[in-house]
Automatic annotation (TrEMBL):
SUPFAM superfamilies: NAD(P)-binding Rossmann-fold domains. InterPro entries: FAR_NAD-bd, NAD(P)-bd_dom_sf, NAD(P)_dehydrat-like. This is SDR family oxidoreductase. The keyword Membrane does not apply. It holds the Pfam family NAD_binding_4. Keywords: Oxidoreductase. It comes from Sorangium atrum. PANTHER family: NAD DEPENDENT EPIMERASE/DEHYDRATASE, STEROL-4-ALPHA-CARBOXYLATE 3-DEHYDROGENASE, DECARBOXYLATING.
Length: 363
C-alpha cells in the first residue's frame, strides 16, 4: 500500500488497544501506522492484523514518532480522513518529564498534524474513564494554577497526571483551532471476549496473577469499590465506528461495562473460577495510603483507580445502539481472559495460549 492511499492514521498501533484497532479498521479501510523501528516491527504487526480478522494488505507501517516534529513522517498522507491518537506511555513509576513528553506534547503534535490534513473528518483521542470527574471537565484548565497541576501529579503520579493534562490541552487546542474531535474514555481493558487474548497485564492483570499465585491476602477499597472493565475487541469496534456518525463529534464517550461487579465481588468470582482462595480482607483506601509501598505491595499510583464513583456512559451507549454494538457478557469474558492469562503463564509463553482462531473465523 502507498502513503497516498491511506484513509486512516493510527498512532500507538503497536500497543494493546492499537493492535486490535488496526485489525478492525483494515477489514474495510487503508490504514497507516507510524511506529519507531518500522522495518523491524512491520512483519510482526502485519501478522497480528491478519491473525485477528484484518487485512495487512491495507496496512502501511511507516517510521514515525509522536515525540518528533510532524510525527517524524516523511510523507504527507493527504488523503487521511480520520486520525486516531492512541500513543501514550503507560506505566507506573514514570518521571514527570518523560510522561509529559509523550502524553502531553505528543498529543498536541498529533492534533496539530491532524489539523493539517485537507480532508480531515475526525481526530479521535483516547483518554481514560477517570478523566470524567470534576477536575478534568472542560474549562478546568482556566482555573488550575501551577500549584494545582503539581498537586495533581503528586496525587495521581506521572502517568495519570499527564493523561489529565493531555486531555485538557487537546480540548483547548481543538476549541482554539477548530479541530473536529471525539474523545473516547475506556475503563480498564481486558482481553478479547472470544479468546481472552491480551498483550497487557498492568493493573487488573497483575492483581489476577497475584491471586493465582496466592499472593493477594487483601484487597484495597471497600465493598462498593467499582473498577469497571471493557473487552479489547468491543473497544476496537467502538473506536472504529466513531467517525462514521457526525453525532459523535465534540463528544466525550465513556466506554465501560456497567455490569462489571464491584471489585470484591469481581475478585471472588475470579477466585472461584480459578479455584483459588479469595482475599480475606478489604483494607480501607485511606489506611493503605498511609502505609509504605514496600509493606503493602500496592503501587501508590494505582490507588486513584480504586474509587466508588459512578460514570455516565449514556452518550457512548447511545452511539453503540445506533451502530448495533452489543457488549459481550462480562462474566464469560472475564473467565476467558483469566484462562488465557493462566495458560500463557501471565505473558511468559504467549504462543501456547488456547483459543486462538484463524483469521477467517474471527467475527
Amino acid at each position: 500500500m502507498r502513503a497516498c492511499d491511506a484513509e486512516v492514521m493510527v498512532t500507538g498501533g503497536t500497543g494493546f488497544i492499537g493492535r486490535w484497532l488496526l485489525a478492525e479498521l483494515t477489514r474495510t479501510k487503508a490504514v497507516a501506522a507510524p511506529v519507531r523501528r518500522a522495518r523491524q516491527r512491520a512483519a510482526e504487526l502485519s501478522a497480528f492484523v491478519d491473525a485477528h480478522g484484518g487485512d495487512s494488505r491495507r496496512l502501511l507501517v511507516v517510521e514515525g514518532d509522536v515525540e518528533a516534529a510532524s510525527l517524524g513522517l516523511s510523507e504527507r498522507f493527504e488523503q487521511v480522513r480520520d486520525v486516531y491518537h492512541l500513543a501514550a506511555r503507560f506505566a507506573f513509576g514514570l518521571g514527570v518529564q518523560e510522561a509529559r513528553r509523550c502524553n502531553v506534547e505528543g498529543s498536541l503534535r498529533a492534533a496539530e498534524w491532524a489539523l493539517g490534513r485537507p480532508h480531515l473528518r475526525r481526530f479521535v483521542y483516547l483518554g481514560g474513564y477517570r478523566m470524567m470527574h470534576a477536575s478534568a471537565r472542560p474549562g478546568a484548565e482556566s482555573v488550575l494554577t501551577q500549584r494545582a497541576w503539581d498537586r495533581l501529579y503528586r496525587q495521581h503520579g506521572a502517568y495519570e497526571g499527564s493523561k489529565h493534562e493531555s486531555f485538557l490541552a487537546v480540548r483547548r487546542f481543538a476549541a482554539e483551532r477548530g479541530l473536529r474531535w471525539t474523545a473516547v474514555h475506556p475503563s480498564s481493558v481486558i482481553g478479547d471476549s472470544r479468546t481472552g487474548e491480551t498483550t497487557q497485564l498492568t493493573g487488573v492483570g497483575e492483581m489476577v496473577e497475584q491471586l493465582w499465585r496466592g499472593r493477594l491476602p487483601a484487597l484495597v477499597g471497600s465493598e462498593r469499590t467499582f473498577l469497571p472493565l471493557v473487552t479489547v475487541d468491543y473497544l476496537a469496534r467502538f473506536l472504529a465506528s466513531v467517525p462514521e456518525r457526525p453525532e459523535t463529534a465534540e463528544q466525550d464517550l465513556c466506554v465501560l461495562d456497567q455490569a462489571t461487579p464491584r471489585l470484591p465481588a469481581l475478585v471472588r468470582g475470579i477466585a472461584a473460577h480459578m479455584r483459588r482462595s479469595p482475599p480475606a480482607w478489604v483494607l480501607p483506601l485511606g489506611l493503605v495510603r498511609l502505609l509504605p509501598e514496600a509493606l503493602t505491595g500496592v503501587t501508590r499510583e494505582s490507588l486513584s483507580f480504586l474509587a466508588e464513583d459512578a460514570y455516565d456512559t449514556s452518550a457512548a451507549d447511545a452511539h453503540a445502539r445506533a451502530v448495533g454494538l452489543v457488549m459481550p457478557p462480562i462474566h464469560t469474558s472475564v473467565e476467558r481472559w483469566c484462562d488465557y492469562l493462566v495458560a500463557t503463564r501471565f505473558g511468559a509463553t504467549p504462543g501456547n495460549a488456547p483459543g486462538r482462531r484463524p483469521a477467517s473465523s474471527v467475527a
